[in-house]
Amino acid sequence: MANHKKHSNALAKEQSAYLRQHANNPVNWVPWAENHFLEAKENNRLIIISIGYAACHWCHVMEHESFEDKGVARLMNEHFISIKVDREERPDVDHVYMQALQLLTGQGGWPLNIVALPDGRPIWGGTYFPKDQWIHYLDQLVQLQKEHPEKLLAYAAQLSEGMQQLELEKHKQEKAITTNDLANAVNGIYQKLDEQQGGMLGAPKFMMPTLLELYAASDHLNQHLRLSLDKMALGGLFDLLGGGFSRYSVDERWHIPHFEKMGYDNGQLLYSYSKAYRNQPSQLYREVVEKTVQFLQKELSNGTGGFYASLDADSLNKKGELEEGAFYVWTKEELDQLGLSQQEHFNTYFGINERGFWENDNYVIYRVNSMEDYKVKHALNDDFDAKIIQWETSLLKARNKRSKPRLDDKVICSWNALIGSGLLQAYRAFDDNNYLQLVRENIDYIEENLHSTDGGLYRLNNQGANLVHGFLEDYSALIRYYIDAYECFFDPRYLNHVEHFITHCFIHFLDPKSPFFVFSANEKLVVETREINDNVIPSSNAMMAENLLRASVHLGRPEWAIHAKKMLATVATELCNYPRAYSYWLRLALDAEKKQREIVIVGPEAFDWIKILQQSPLENTHWAASSTPSKLPLLQNRYNATETQIYICENNHCNLPYTSIEEAKKALDLT
Predict the structure, then answer these.
(1) Has residue 172 got a pLDDT over 90?
(2) How far is residue 187's CA from residue 103's CA, in Å, rounded to a whole number?
(3) Same structural domain for residues 534 and 620?
(4) Are 575 and 463 part of one and the same domain?
(5) Which of 404, 189, 141 minimizes the C-alpha distance to 298?
(6) Number of structural domains in the chain
(7) In a domain, 174, yes or no
(8) Rounded to whole angstroms, what are the CA distances from 195 to 154, 182, 200, 288, 586?
(9) pLDDT greater than 60 at residue 326
């Protein structure tokens, strides 16, 4: 206890699990706050800005090697003010300094370590450093500040100017996107596909849900979607026992995961697998969806409707030491003790062989075939299903006796919206009321805990505290979630939220120099950023453009569609040149080329009928329904109390209403 008190620093009282992980370091860490920059200026100290997140393996490695070392701590404490930042809590800070790092080194990643002047302007940076390198570079910077401070000032000015220029130069001119442009952009993606293992060529392999949605929207790429989904589901990336996906695989065949599990990944993958199931049912996809929902409920649910952020990659091994993947891997000896590996088909099905071997006598479960395909291949009957369930139950029971990975217990607005949209898609695919109940509870949680009294949003809720205001990512993802929720529940209050938050974004986030929205409307940093490139999560501006297109139809706001098309035209040049980095934008552009459909059902049986039609894979469709008169633009003056009517409109042309499901299905080519 005495040792704990001796080494406790200013992070001990922080809400972030990541910051608290560093609370007992001998480094005098402080959280991000303006007063620390003033202190640095008064004492002429450089600032170390170290950014990571709770589930980051290499963050933990650097902590253990350097930040827990008393010699390193003395150096940092004597010459620097050291600020720890949770990138998930403050993505605005992360965006600014990640941009600086990419200008400095051409690369990015976490931990992200930046040294800056007292005014926050960066002068040097990198990611993970072994202890000796970290000491060497810090010593050089201390010496440089003493002997040639003018060089640091000049370099900071040059780098900051480069960051400003990067923000201003991109996306300046509008360009009409032609059909040929789209074909070339899609072909640019096609050239880099891994046609054997799915996803993109090379390793590490990220799932990239933005790319999965692009594959689904493109006739040229569509076959690659199912290959990717199949291979990802069969690989070690998917936790066959506990459900949910790890963040990426370190190899080309989706076998060895980087074992951290993130809420944003699993929400988006839930969406992709459910949507793919609706288009072409697959028992494998059903298994993925059901187990992923179970994972969300058992491991990430806070019990009151919210979903926590992530599970760590590391957990305690048998020696009581933190080790990546220790919770998930198996030795042959462990399986022999359970009496499983001697059973016929066990090793073959679960990959306890050369195919599933990793390192240090460990195996990571890796399937070549789904259960259905395996039964066909080996001429097994349905009794094998029960055997698989028995094996999985035994493995899970044994695994649950191990020390579990650490939990990051903050509830992030945008990530919960991504999970919620995934659950809505799962409900439409499987008609499981459990999924619907999870959505209702989640929306209630968001409205009770993340809507702010000033009409905006909070970024996160952590142990009941809301300390950070929402960023554009939070607004964009939540607006999309509300539109999705309306098209499932048909409660007009969701569209009221959509209109309110879009209006809020135009007032507080719109960039006066472009059609885009800035990432933060709160604290001003050394550079004001606009998030436009798509990553694992779609860029907040791409999501906002999609929201404006969808909301313009539901709320009768054509000016919003015009604004969205202006955004798309302004990003067109970069989209054509770097389609992989603009995959969500590219999907929007492809969808814009296709016919747009509105299906509106009014009357006593409206909700039952629309639920039936929504089981069909109808793309680029806006849905609206009401069993009572409504003033919403798509519903106004269409209600008939005596019979249920179905209106089908395409590209602003509406047919006369149909009065039966059968007629509507025939008109939609669903029969």
Answers:
(1) no
(2) 28
(3) no
(4) yes
(5) 404
(6) 4
(7) no
(8) 49, 21, 8, 22, 21
(9) yes
Pairwise CA distance, residues 75 & 65, whole Å: 14
Average pLDDT, the chain: 94
CA distances to 20, 194, 356, 501, 569 from 563, in Å: 43, 36, 51, 16, 10
Same-domain check for residues 86 and 144: yes
**Same-domain status, 475 and 382:** no
Contact criterion met (CB below 8 Å) for 161 and 96: no
Distances (CA, A) of 130 to 58, 164, 236: 11, 31, 29
Do 393 and 424 have their domain in common? no
Would you place residue 170 in the very low, low, confident or very high pLDDT band (cuts 50, 70, 90)? low
pLDDT tens digits along 72-127: 999 999 999 999 999 999 999 999 999 999 888 888 899 999 999 999 999 999 99
In terms of domains, do 609 and 579 share one?
no
In a domain, 175, yes or no: no
Whether this prediction's pTM lies above 0.90 is answered by yes
Give the full edge-to-edge strand order of the sheet including 407-408. Answer: 261-262, 310-311, 407-408
Last residue of a domain, one of 169, 195, 216: 169
289 with 386, same domain: the answer is: no
pLDDT digits (tens, 9 = 90+) for 381-391: 989 999 999 99
Write the burial class of residue 348 (CB in 10 Å: 0-12 exposed, 13-18 middle, 19+ buried): middle
* DSSP-assigned letter for residue 299: I
Range of the domain at 587: 180-314+408-593
Among the listed residues 128, 125, 134, the one whose alpha carbon sits nearest the alpha carbon of residue 163:
125
pLDDT in tens, 398-416: 999 999 999 999 999 999 9
| 102 in a structural domain | yes
- Percent of the chain, pLDDT > 90? 87
End of a domain among 169, 189, 216? 169
Q: What's the whole-number mean pLDDT along residues 206-223? A: 94
Contact 275, 216 (CB under 8 A): yes
Residues 6+ apart with CB under 8 A from 493: none
Query: Which three-class secondary structure state does DSSP give residue 604?
Result: coil
Is omega for the bond preceding 31 within 30 degrees of 0, making it cis? no
As a whole number of angstroms, the distance between CA 267 and CA 536 comes to 12
**What pLDDT score was predicted for residue 5?**
47
**How far apart, in whole angstroms, are the C-alpha atoms of residue 189 and residue 109?**
23
What tokens does 284 get?
């494998």
> Counting runs of H as helices and runs of E as strands, what totals does the chain give?
27, 21
Could you give the dihedral angle defined by the CA atoms of residues 64, 67, 71 and 72, in that order, rounded to the nearest 10 degrees? 130
What SS3 state is found at 365?
coil
> Cα–Cα distance between 148 and 142 in angstroms, integer?
10
- On whether both 428 and 290 belong to a single domain, the answer is yes
Q: Could you tell me if 630 and 639 are in contact, meaning their C-beta atoms sit under 8 angstroms apart?
A: yes
> Does 648 reside within a domain?
yes
pLDDT for residue 249 is more than 70: yes
The pLDDT of residue 330: 96
Please report, for the domain that includes residue 215, its CATH number.
1.50.10.10
Q: Is the pLDDT of residue 67 over 50?
A: yes
| pLDDT at residue 462, as a whole number | 86
